[in-house]
């Protein structure tokens, strides 16, 4: 038995095979965006003030790690989630900020599928464990995290 989706061109659980890797994004990090995000959500001095940033471990104004997560989510939505049968996520694990992100950097994402399985309690839903790596223009990983996503399936399991 198959379940039709409103748009058969949308990515479904079946499109996330273990070992697959998607690379996308080219998001420029602007000073204006760094200051705006920090002002509203993470007002630590090294995200807001050049002098404080120079005196910090970062050496210059840097984006909040949470801003880096938000930019990663935006790129993931644009490239994958908004053209898929995404049903949300129960959460993320192992969030790591490996390198500072500075105004002038350009970020991209490498999304790797680590595991995929049908949801035991809902035949129309599949689970995908993904590893996100956000890279700067030099290819350095600045952020990594992993977590499960829930996606609608094209086919329902008939043998539970």
Cα-to-Cα separation, first versus last residue: 13 Å
CATH domain topology = Thiol Ester Dehydrase, Chain A
- Tell me the structural class: alpha+beta
Q: From the alpha-carbon coordinates, what is the Rg to the nearest angstrom?
A: 18 Å
Oligomer: single chain
* Total domain modules: 1
What order do the SSEs take from the amino end to the carboxyl end, as H and E?
A: EHHHHEEEE
Spatial arrangement of strands, main beta sheet: 1-3-4-5-2
Helix content: 10-25%
- Uncertain residue ranges: 1-6
> Please, what is the CATH homologous superfamily?
Hotdog Thioesterase
Mean pLDDT: 93
CATH first level: Alpha Beta
- Categorize the overall geometry: elongated
Using DSSP, what is the number of strands?
A: 5
Helix tally equals 4
Architecture, according to CATH?
A: Roll
Residue fraction in strands = 25-35%
Largest sheet descriptor:
5 strands, antiparallel
Provide tags for this entry.
Thiol Ester Dehydrase, Chain A; five-stranded antiparallel beta sheet; 22% helix; 32% strand; elongated
Describe the protein in words.
By secondary structure, the chain is an alpha+beta fold. The chain has one domain: Thiol Ester Dehydrase, Chain A (Roll). The chain contains four helices and five strands, in the order βααααββββ. The chain is elongated, with a radius of gyration of 18 Å. 27% of the residues are buried.
């Amino acid at each position: 038995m198959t379940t039709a989706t409103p748009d058969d061109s949308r990515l479904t659980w079946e499109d996330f095979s273990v070992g697959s890797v998607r690379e996308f994004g080219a998001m420029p990090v602007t000073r204006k965006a760094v200051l705006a995000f920090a002002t509203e959500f993470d007002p630590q001095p090294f995200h807001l003030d050049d002098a404080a940033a120079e005196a910090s471990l970062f050496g210059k104004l840097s984006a909040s790690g949470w801003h880096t997560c938000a930019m990663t989510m935006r790129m993931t939505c644009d490239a994958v989630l908004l053209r898929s049968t995404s049903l949300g996520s129960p959460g993320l694990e192992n969030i790591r900020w490996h390198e500072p992100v500075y105004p002038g950097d350009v970020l991209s994402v490498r999304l790797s599928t680590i595991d995929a399985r049908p949801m035991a309690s809902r035949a129309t839903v599949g689970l995908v464990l993904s590893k996100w790596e956000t890279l700067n223009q030099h290819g350095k990983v600045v952020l990594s995290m992993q977590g499960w996503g829930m996606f609608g399936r094209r086919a329902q399991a008939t043998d539970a």
